[in-house]
Amino acid sequence: MINIQEKSKTSGKSALNVVSKKSGKAIMDFTMIKEGDRIAVAVSGGKDSLSLLHVLRDRQRFSPVAFTFTAVHIDFEFADFDPTNLVEYFKKEKFPYILEQVDSLKGQSYEDIDCFWWSRNRRKALFQLAQREGFTKIAFGHHLDDIAETIVLNQFYRGEIGAMKPKQELFGGKIVLIRPLAYVREAAMVELAKELGIDSMGQSKCANDDTSHRMKIKKMLHEFEKDNPSIVKNIFNSLSNIQSDYLLQTDR
After folding, report:
1. CA distance 37 to 211
2. CB within 10 Å: which end of the chain, N or C, has fewer?
3. Using CA atoms, how far apart are residues 169 and 174, in angstroms rounded to an integer?
4. What gap in Å lies between CA 71 and CA 247, rounded to an integer?
């Protein structure tokens, strides 16, 4: 079972220090980064993916292996979204970046796009870019709450047990996804965004996310945490504590 420490008092420590330390542990536990890795950081424009850039830059100071990373934003050229502010942020913070334009929905309204379509096509564009540019890993800004919510979502709405893994190899290892924030709670990411002065610059999630199944699960888990603060951590740990004797097996 993965041991994730409860939120501790962080007096005297910056939010970046706290998040970076937990990310460093996740990176080490799952061997997310190796010598010479070139990492494409999927930046949607929300606080988590933007903050991840700062976390990875901080980890470079302590990492026993050398690696580089580049911010990558997939721009669907929606009529009501302009990535200019995002690009200016990359420049101001001196983050190398790639703005990948995908014109399959050019001119359409972001508000009208289906969440499933948005996510699927964004990933497809990221995979193609990573292969073209020679990136060895793609990093996402998913945190512990995102992973726990996905576990419950898969059970409730897909009838399966599975999650967003902290490290996941696809297509025979040709594409490797990593989630350095896997041990970090959402509340810590909110504090980090405040410390960094980061506001969402758009497209942090799909436009209709507030009414999605994920939002319902998020609200449900927040209610459960009032009685049991370990709920989210326990859900995460459950996938490394499988009691196989109690899983359903048919005789056919």
Report:
1. 38
2. C
3. 7
4. 41
Would you say residue 242 has pLDDT above 90? no
Q: Which residues contact 21 (CB under 8 A, 6 or more apart)?
A: none
Asked if residues 2 and 240 have their Cβ atoms less than 8 Å apart, the reply is yes
The per-residue pLDDT for range 127-157, each reduced to its tens digit, is: 999 999 999 999 999 999 999 999 999 999 8
Cα distances (Å, whole numbers) of residue 138 to 17, 104, 141, 147, 174: 23, 22, 10, 17, 11
The residue assigned the tokens 């536990």 is 29
Comparison of pLDDT for 6 and 19, the residue scoring more: 19
Q: Is the pTM of this model over 0.85?
A: yes
- Domain 15-242 matching CATH 3.40.50.620: the answer reads yes
Pick from 115, 37, 127, 113: nearest CA to 74: 127
pLDDT above 70 (res 204): no
**CA-CA distances (angstroms) from residue 249 to 35, 157, 196, 246?**
42, 21, 50, 9
Beta strands in 63-210 (DSSP E): 67-75, 97-101, 137-139, 167-170, 175-178
* Structure-block tokens of residue 65: 């292996």
Using DSSP's 3-state secondary structure scheme, residue 115 falls into: helix
Strands 97-101 and 137-139: unpaired
SS3 labels along 21-83? HHHHHHHHHCCCCCCCEEEEEECCCCHHHHHHHHHHHHHCCCCCCCEEEEEEEEECCCCCCCC
